[in-house]
Design a protein that fits this description.
Bound molecules: S-adenosylmethionine
CATH topology: Rossmann fold
Largest sheet: 8 strands, mixed
Number of helices: 9
Structural class: alpha/beta
CATH architecture: 3-Layer(aba) Sandwich
Number of strands: 10
Distance between the termini: 42 Å
Oligomer: single chain
CATH superfamily: Vaccinia Virus protein VP39
């Protein structure tokens, strides 16, 4: 069961806060035998590979800091609405990392940046689709001229794939309910939404349910 966060995203539903999952989170994601977690490590590594040493980087929904730990030395700002996830991240990340406890849409709604890269793993699927599009526009505004937005998350290729995966996992409610109840990305919709904002987009599949999307300006 997830608790509701304090932050507000400027008219969008309240953030999904992982305070109650925090203590067990790192142990859970280390077990990739469950289809929802399959590919987690490879996906984070792929997102991290898009960041260069010394860059200004924003990690959205940074959780316990697992993506930040994989980044090269950089000027890292992490945003997460969960105090408990942020407390664990603080104990793992370099001292110079800036950790902000806030709703990610609200954070990007205030003047911030510019960032060379905005990265995010397994967080944006908590936003409904209209909020995802608002997020893309706010990220675009916070990026430096040749900046990147790189995501790894629970995503489905398109509507047909969604139906196929419901069928594949019909006997496993822990997967079927997750697909039904959370806002898994639709890659086929997200790519043109990012392209309309001027990004060139590359995608990578990591498992049945997880993909990476790398969007570049310039
Ligand atoms: C599944 S965890 C992923 C954590 C981490 N990025 C990782 O890859 O392990 C999702 C994180 O997003 C945070 N989150 C969800 N919605 C958020 C929002 N609207 N604003 C800020 N943080 C949010 C949760 O508190 C949680 O820490």
């Amino acid at each position: 069961m997830e608790t509701k966060g304090r932050g507000r995203g400027g008219g969008y539903p309240r953030a999904v806060n992982h305070d109650r999952q925090a203590a067990a989170y790192d142990r859970n994601v280390a077990d990739e035998s469950h289809p929802v977690r399959a590919g987690y490590g490879a996906c984070l590594d792929w997102v991290a590979s898009h960041v260069a040493q010394g860059e200004r980087v924003l990690d959205l929904g940074s959780g316990t800091g697992n993506l930040g730990l994989r980044l090269p030395p950089c000027r890292l700002t992490c945003v997460d609405v969960s105090a408990e996830m942020t407390r664990i991240a603080r104990s793992k990340l370099p001292r110079h990392a800036i950790l902000v406890e806030a709703d990610l849409l609200a954070f990007l709604g205030e003047p911030c940046g510019p960032f060379d890269a905005v990265v995010s793993t397994y967080a944006v699927h908590h936003l409904a689709d209209p909020a995802k599009e608002a997020l893309f526009a706010r990220i675009r505004a916070a990026l430096a001229p040749r900046g990147r937005a790189v995501f790894g998350d629970l995503m489905l290729e398109n509507a047909a794939a969604r139906e196929g995966l419901f069928a594949k996992y019909a006997a496993d409610p822990s997967v079927a309910d997750s697909i039904r109840e959370e806002s898994y990305w639709d890659v086929a919709s997200a790519v043109p939404a990012l392209e309309r904002l001027g990004f060139s987009v590359e995608t990578r599949r990591f498992s049945d349910l997880s993909w990476g999307v790398a969007a570049r300006l310039g």
